[in-house]
Amino acid sequence: MKVFTKIKDIQEFLSEQKRNGKTIGFVPTMGYLHEGHLSLVKKATAENDLTVMSIFVNPIQFGPNEDFERYPRDFDRDRKLAEDNGVDVLFHPSVEEMYPEESIVQMNVKKRKDVLCGRTRKGHFDGVVTVLTKLFHITMPDRAYFGLKDAQQFAIVQGFVADLNFPIDIIGVETVREEDGLAKSSRNTYLSAQERKEAPEIYQALLKGKKAVENGVDDPAEIVRLVSDHIRQNTGGEIDYVEVLSFPELDPLERIKGKVIIATAVQFASARLIDNVILDLSR
């Protein structure tokens, strides 16, 4: 596995690979890798000649009261996991390398952002699409892989890539879960022992909502109530939101139909957990 820290060096290497006809699968991460990330790597290695991973904790997608400084980092561990799981090229730039001076262009997401996590994380997705634009130009992938646990991010990335005509296929990969159903996340390390026992109930609440929809309930408010009640009754977490929206448009629904997402965020003492289920009723 080759490791690069400089933009110029990785661009030169990958440009040569592209000239030689190699296809590139790209897995952008902020590190502290877990099985969710590695599932993206597995799919990328199956579908491409080269798998490129970036590890970069992007400061411009964190708000002033968010956890940029204490976001977990362990590059030596990540490097070994990446190599052991088939990553061919690892890109680990510094903040100064990615943002050497103040940008003269401001990217702004206009749609799909003012719901779910985006409602309270102003500017977050502007930072996401900014860093991804840079990373896409740097790594020149044919395909890029994103976990569907952060379904809003996936929907926005899919939309902005189409808007800006990037020649990249955006591939969504199913959420990887613990045996008890809890979605894998770097932030799970912040949970207390009691919170870790309660956290799987978030997914159980979503499954209850999914089952109700499959049984014919088409009122979004009723699904929100079912999911919310289950979370409140079975966890000590505070609900940030429960929403039922069209997917990937993320528009409100009067009645549940077509492809939809049921999504929630729950705040525990030191960790905010997100999860979702996606249903396609048009099939």
Automatic annotation (TrEMBL):
UniProt keyword annotation of Nucleotide-binding present: yes
Localization terms from the record: Cytoplasm
One GO BP: pantothenate biosynthetic process
Catalytic activity: (R)-pantoate + beta-alanine + ATP = (R)-pantothenate + AMP + diphosphate + H(+)
GO molecular function: ATP binding; pantoate-beta-alanine ligase activity
GO CC, any one term: cytosol
Pathway(s) where this gene product acts: Cofactor biosynthesis; (R)-pantothenate biosynthesis; (R)-pantothenate from (R)-pantoate and beta-alanine: step 1/1
Binding site for ATP: 30-37, 147-150, 176, 184-187
Miscellaneous: The reaction proceeds by a bi uni uni bi ping pong mechanism.
Complex and partners: Homodimer.
PANTHER family tied to this protein: CYTIDYLATE KINASE/PANTOATE-BETA-ALANINE LIGASE, PANTOATE--BETA-ALANINE LIGASE
Listed name of the protein: Pantothenate synthetase
